[in-house]
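Problem statement: downstream parser choked on a complex file, so we are re-checking the raw output for the RUQ run. The parser issue turned out to be on our end (a line-ending mismatch), but while we're here, posting the original submission so the record is complete.
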Amino acid sequence: MKSLAVKATAVLLATGIGAGAAWSAESLQDVMKRRGLSQQDLMAAAKTYTPTGKRDEFLAFSSGGQSGQILVYGIPSMRILKYIGVFTPEPWQGYGYDEESKAVLRQGWIDGKEITWGDTHHPAISETQGQYDGQFLFINDKANPRLAVVDLRDFETKQIVVNPIYKSEHGGAFVTPDTDYVIEAAQYATPLENQKFYPLEEFNEKYRGGVTYWKFDRKAGRLDPSKSFSLELPPYSQDLSDAGKGPSDGWSFTNSFCSERYVGGIEKGRPPYEAGCSAKDTDYLHVVNWKKAAELVAQGKAKKINGHDVLMMETAVKEGILFLIPEPKSPHGVDVTPDGKFIIVAGKLDTHVSVYSFDKIQAAIKAGKFESKDPYGIPVIGMKDALHTQVPLGLGPLHTQFDAKQCVAYTSLYVDSQVAKWDFCEGKVLDKISVHYNIGHLMTMEGDSVDPKGRYLVALNKLSIDRFNPVGPLHPQNHQLIDISNDKMQLLYDMPLPLGEPHYVVAIEASKLKPGVRYKVGTNSRTDEPHPGKVRAGEERIERDGNKVTVYGTLIRSHITPETIEVEVGDEVTINLTNLERAQDETHGFAVSTYNVHASIEPGKSVSVKFKADKEGVYPYYCTEFCSALHLEMQGYLLVKPKGWKATTKEIAKAAYTESDYQTTLKKVVDTQAVIDSVVAFITSTNYKDFPDVVNMVEDATDQLGKAADAKSRHEAAAAKQDWEQANLWAEQVWQYQVKAADIGIRAKTYLEQNGAKKIQ
Ligand code: RUQ
Ligand code: CUA
C-alpha cells in the first residue's frame, strides 16, 4: 500500500502535476488542514457521506415550485434521484412529448387552454391509518387550482384534476388518515361560478373561499371528481390545512389570513392589501366536520356549482359542521399533532405558536358555548375556550413538524432564520438553531404522520444569499439537513436546489417504497391498461388507412423495428412502440428529427408519438438512450415523399465483401460463442434462479441468441450462392445477437458475484 502511494507520488512529481502537494500520501489530518475542516465538519461528513453502492434511509419528495415538477432525493446523502414531470413537460421522460403523457397534461388544461407551468406547493404521501404507506403521492398547483396524482409504483403522474370552483388554491394537498379524501383549500376569494364577473364592491356578498374534499379511489389509483365535494367558506383567504387524526379523525382544520376581507387599490389612493389584510389582531381557524359534510352531500343537501357538489355555508351552519376560532395574527401553518389531540397554529406576524386542544373545541361545541357569530352566521368559539397553551418562539413562526419523541415539535422561524425545538405538551422551548436564510417549511422524517421517525430535519430556506458560489442574481434555493437525534440540533449539510421555490417536502422510509423495474409487456403506463398499439416481436407492421399511417413497432437492443417508414406529405403518422426488454434499466428513447416528438420507453412499456408529416424530406429517427454498445446504430429513416412519387428501380448500393471477409466473421462468431459458453457455465453453476433480476437477464439473453438461428440459415444460404455481401452481413448479424447476449450474460454474472450467489455444483 505504502509503496504504491510513494510510486504514485513519484509519478506525479516527475510529471510536474501537483508539485509540492503529495496528494496520494495525504493523511486525514492533512486533508482537514488543507480544506480547513473542523472535527465537527468531519462528524457531519460521516453522518451524510454515502459510499458508492450504499443507499439512503429516507426518500424525500420535494415540490419543484414553479417548475411544476417534483424532485426526489435521498436522506441523509441529499443526492437527487429523479425529477417527476407533473404539471409541466419533462423531456427526458417524454412527458408531454408522447401521446399518453400528453393526455395526462391535457386533463390539466383550464377553459380549453393549455397551461404550461405550475406553482406546486405541498406534496402528500398516501396514508393507511395515519401512517405513510408509500403507494401514492399528491401535489397541488396554487396558481391554476389543480391537484395531481403520482403512482409510486413507477413514479409517474397518472392524473390531474382542475378545481371546478376556485381560481387559486394553497391549502392542499393534505390527506385524511386513510386517504379517503385529499384536502384542497382555496386561497384568494373569487366568485365560485366559472367566468362570472362581480365588481370588487360586492366582495363580501359575492366572493367566496372554500375547501374541497377530493374522493380518492385507491383501487383505481385516481381521484373521483363525481364523488368529491366542496364546502363554501367566507372570503377569508383560506391558507394551509390539515386533517385530524386519531381522536380528531373526521375533522379538518384550515387557516386564514385577511379575514378583514380588505380590498386594496393603491392606484386609487386606498392603503395597500398588506396594510388592510393584517390590521386585525386575529384571523380565523376554520374547523370542519368533513365526515358529516360527506354524509350531507350524499343526502343531496349540496348545491351544484359548475357541475360540482358544494355544501353552502348556510347548510353547514344549520347542520352544525362548521366553526371558527380566532387565531393570531395572519397565521400560516396549521399542523395536527401525531396523537391527534392538538392543533398547532403558527403566528407568522405573532411570535407565538398557539396550541389548540381538540377536546376543548369539542366541549365548547357540545355545550353550545360560542362567543359570537361572524358576518356569515358561523359560530365563533372563544380563543381561551379552545387553547391548550401558547408558546413564544420567536419572529415569524410558519410551520411545525414532529419528532418520534413524545411532545417534541420543530417550528420554522422565518424572520429569525431559525428552527425552534419545543415541547407542545409543557409549552416550553428546548433548543434553537440558525439556518441560512429565511426558512419557510421544515420537514422531519414522516413528521406529519401519526408515527414520526425523528432522526433528520430539513430546513427549506427561501434565500441562500452567500452560501454557494455565485451564479448570477438568481440564487439557488437551500435545503439544509439537520441532525435531530440528540438534544442539541446539528447542522449537517447544505444542498442547493436549482429549481423554483420548493415549498414543502415529505420524506418516507425508503424500505416502504416498492417501485417496479419493468411493466407487463405492452402497458400504457399512464392508464395502467394494455396499450392498443402494442405488438410482440415478429408482429411489427405499418398500416395505412386513407392518409393515416399507423406504425406498430418494437425496440430491443440494438434495433428499432421497422427501420424505414415511408409516408407521403400530408399523412398523419402515429408510431406505436413497445420495449421488449426484460432486463432492468434497459430503457430506449425514441426521437424523430424536427417533428418535436420524444418518448422514453422503459422495459415493457408501450407509447405512441403522433405528428403530421407536413414537410417533404428525409428524417432520421433514433434511440436517445445509450442502451448498448450498438446504441448509435439504433436508427432508421422516416421518408416523407412528395405526393405521387414513383418508386425507383435502382437498388441500394452493395459493399464489396469477399469470401475471406465472410470466413473472418465466422471465426469471430466461433470465438464469441466460447465467451458465451463460459458465462453460461458460470451462471448455471449457481443458484441464479433465486435472483429474479438474473432470471430476467437470462431470458433476454436467450431471446437474443434465439434470433441467431434465422440469421445463420440466411448467411449459409447466401454463402451457398456465393453472395458474399449477404453472407458476410448475415454472419455479422449472428455476431450482433451474440454480442448482446454476452453483454447481458456478463451483467448477470457480475450481479451474481456481487450479490453472494452460491455454487450449486
Ligand atoms: S406555504 S412557507 Cu405554500 Cu406551504 Cu408556507
Ligand atoms: Cu436503444 Cu439506444
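For whoever reads this later: The mean pLDDT is 94.
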